[in-house]
Write a structure and sequence with these properties.
8-stranded antiparallel β-barrel; globular; 127 residues; 8 strands; mainly beta
């Protein structure tokens, strides 16, 4: 899976996010592609209703357009996440199962390139 995940990200122009820090007063969901090693691909700020991605060295946030869907900067993503409480984790949860669909879109929202779907893992952290 790691080669497929890396190819998917590179075909779509996305690169790995650097480690992100929790923000006081906010709940963040850290998303990584299930690969070996994991690829940190996105971060969702549940409070601001945005998803952070990275293209090259530029990080950018895209807005929530519907529950579990985010769009902007030429991308539309759909997240399906199932969380499970985990002993030892306070104010957070582990993603029990998840998938991420990424589409390249034109400014009008019409499909304009690749569409990829892959399994993701991660965790929610609230401060």
């Amino acid at each position: 899976m790691s080669i497929l995940a890396l190819l998917a990200a590179s075909v779509m122009g996305l690169t790995e996010l650097p480690p992100q820090k929790p923000v006081p007063g906010r709940c963040l969901v850290f998303i990584w592609v299930k690969s070996n090693p994991p690829l940190r691909l996105a971060m969702i700020d549940e409070t601001a209703k945005t998803m952070r991605l990275r293209k090259g060295k530029q990080m950018f946030d895209i807005s929530e357009i519907a529950p579990g869907q985010y769009g902007g900067h030429g991308y539309r993503t759909t997240m399906v996440l199932s969380f499970a409480p985990s002993p030892g984790i306070t104010n957070g949860a582990i993603i029990e199962s998840g998938s991420m669909r990424i589409e390249q879109v034109a400014p009008n929202g019409a499909p304009a390139g690749e569409i990829m779907t892959f399994p993701v893992g991660g965790m929610r952290a609230c401060q």
